[in-house]
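Issue: ligand-bound run for zinc ion - logging full I/O for the record.

Environment: standard queue, default settings, no custom constraints.

Inputs:
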Amino acid sequence: MLCPDCVKVRPDQTISWSFGLAFGLLLELSAHKEKSLNLQSAMHFLYPPQCLSCGEETSADFALCAECWREAAFINGLVCDVCGIPLPGEPLSEEAEEHPFCDDCLARPKPWDRGRAALLYQGTARRMVMGLKHRDRQELASPMAMWLKQAGQGLFSSDTLVAPVPLHRHRFFTRRFNQSALLAAQFAKLCNLSHCPDLLKRHKATRIQESMTLPERYENLSQAISVPSGHLAQISRRPILLIDDVMTSGATLSACAEACKSADAAEVNVLVLARVARDT
Ligand SMILES: [Zn+2]
Ligand SMILES: [Zn+2]
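Outputs:
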């Protein structure tokens, strides 16, 4: 049906006007696109895109230079289903029901269900994690979240609750932010999942673990992490995905997973940006 104004003209004229309007709109849109491309080119001229890892000039935003790309040990292929460490052998098909475990996870079962890591903690990944953690490069969280999403396929569903490994408040005040919470927030936003940054609380100021033996690490963290009573209803019977920047022995993630399981979580999976290749 035609409106009163259109009735005054022939129907074929109305159609040609519609085409004219659509064509005009297209021209307008392409002019806007061109303007935005010109603006982008001007911004790139003034502020050339830099490699996320080393700061070298790159051709695109949020990218790695060729050298850092070569040094980025992204984890692909067959991995341990629990800790995400690469294993020798062919990758499994999508339908495979049995997933392999590494020797360490067989010898010392972890309290979480499944886990993945995006990269090995070396070269580019190590530089980027140090940049995020100690040099306040918070802009790295967004590209890191994309790598987490890629590595974590199959570990989460639409009702998964995402939570970071907590930092004790003393360390939070010296560092001013929790790098795991930044990663978890970006990841949850990217995957459209619920995020609870304070689902877990570290109520004991644990010592720095780098020089400790494995039993010392577990002892250092025992009873250090719990779910505050205000979050018990939120966690009950819900799948939880814990996010951290680096997994070394898995002691911290174990303490977090145990706290979640004690609080009746339905399933606890872990996803980390980088995995130390061998436990120290
Ligand atoms: Zn680089
Ligand atoms: Zn393993």
